[in-house]
Amino acid sequence: MVRDLAKRGISSLKPYIPGKPIEEVKRELGLKEVIKLASNENPLGPSPLAVQALREAISQVHLYPEDGGPQLRKAVARRLGVSPQEVILGNGSVEIIQAINIAFLNPGEKVVISDPSFALYRITTQAAGGEEVLIPLKDWRHDLEAMAKAVDGQTKLLFIDNPINPVGTMVTRRELEPFIERVPENLIVILDEAYYEYQEREDYPDSLKWVRQGLNVVVLRTFSKIYGLAGLRLGYGIAKKEIVEFLNQVRLPFNVNLLALKAAMACLENEEHCLRTRKLNRKEKRFLYEQLDQMGVEYVPSETNFIMIELGQDTRTFFQEFLKQGVIVRPLGGYGLPTKIRLTVGKRQENEAFIRSLKRIIRKRS
Ligand SMILES: Cc1ncc(COP(=O)(O)O)c(C=O)c1O
What's the pTM? Predict the structure, then answer.
């Protein structure tokens, strides 16, 4: 049986469940209009400059891209005040999460992960034969004290998504600093800042400082969220040179495609698009909070472009009812939160459509 051939741990692995695609819902339910608020994508789309760069690059796709994306690495490094040797690009930041596991984790070594947090930490750990050590959140935030306590001589990796997906809360500079400074030499801490550009708090940690200080820290960021390039797949990691060198050892050639590289270069020159997106997100998040408050629906205030919402009942059926009304949300049963959904903050029309659907569903159920 093929099952017997699979590597140990792989057959029991629960694969990642992505947000349901718009086209699939249209096809399955025969709907013309469907809105997706399930994958934390940018409701404004990519920046016009990125679209222009893609148009120009399209005739070059018969050529392999420059391996490793040296130009983009240089541009990112200049912006962040690090050297290009301290930057690695990935086919989405998920690829770098996987590369960290492949390059650094021996089977049986431990990985400390908050529960819940971004699903890929567990999946890649299990795939690499690592042993996950799950630490429950405390008041919906990372329990840094418990995470630090869980680290022992067998622990190799520790993941912190800041803010946490699917919750949206963050740890502050003051909370994280003493934690990072105590990190032993045999441990690598991954600070996943996929929503970095959305958070607007002054007490957000300056994580790159720890990279510059030469600590075993990998900071992850992505072009999928505020930059609106999720479909092109491009994320990046920043870490000291020695760590990046090992990640490069396991990186596949040409892992980032030519179009993604060109579009990302253009994005970096378009701060305006980020500002517009952040402004929209701030305004629309407030709108959603107000609407949910009026309805007496609970949620966790978020530092990101998504909100975790409590619906009080198993959300699998809610999910189907939302779908029928052309609204795709993310049920969180897979994260061990069966009564919650995660909603991406969209444009006003989309948010209104969600609220209308929610009201209708609640009315029908009461
Ligand atoms: C915390 C976190 N990290 C990483 C990612 C993956 O991003 P990418 O599209 O760069 O692979 C996501 C995507 O949802 C995320 O929420």
Answer: 0.97
CATH number of the CATH domain containing 314: 3.90.1150.10
Residues 148, 40 within the same domain: no
155 lines ligand 1 (CB under 6 A): no
Same domain, 124 and 162: yes
Confidence of residue 19 (pLDDT cuts 50, 70, 90): confident
Average pLDDT (3-22) is: 86
What number does the ligand 1 atom closest to the CA of 230 have?
A: 9
Query: Domain containing 164 — which CATH number?
Result: 3.40.640.10
> 38 in ligand 1 pocket by Cβ < 6 Å?
no
CA of 177 to the centre of ligand 1 (A): 23
Burial of 244 (C-beta count, 10 Å sphere; 0-12/13-18/19+): buried
Residue having the nearest C-alpha atom to atom 12 of ligand 1: 194
Do 156 and 100 have their domain in common? yes
Whether residue 92 has its Cβ less than 6 Å from ligand 1: yes
Domain with 107, as residue range(s), is 48-268
State in Å: Cα 338 to ligand 1 middle: 21
Q: What is the 3-state secondary structure (H, E, C) of 75-92?
A: HHHHHHCCCHHHEEEECC
Residues 299-356: tens digit of each pLDDT: 999 999 999 999 998 888 889 999 999 999 999 999 999 999 999 999 999 999 999 9
Overall average pLDDT of the 33-51 stretch: 96
Specify whether 116 is located in the same domain as 218: yes
282 and 303 part of one domain: yes
Ligand 1 atom nearest residue 224's Cα: 9
Question: Coil, strand or helix: which one is 340?
Answer: strand
- Counting the structural domains of the chain, the total is 2
Does ligand 1 lie within 6 Å of residue 237's CB atom? no
Alpha helices, H only, the chain = 2-5, 22-29, 48-57, 70-80, 93-104, 119-127, 144-150, 173-181, 208-212, 241-250, 258-268, 271-295, 315-324, 348-365
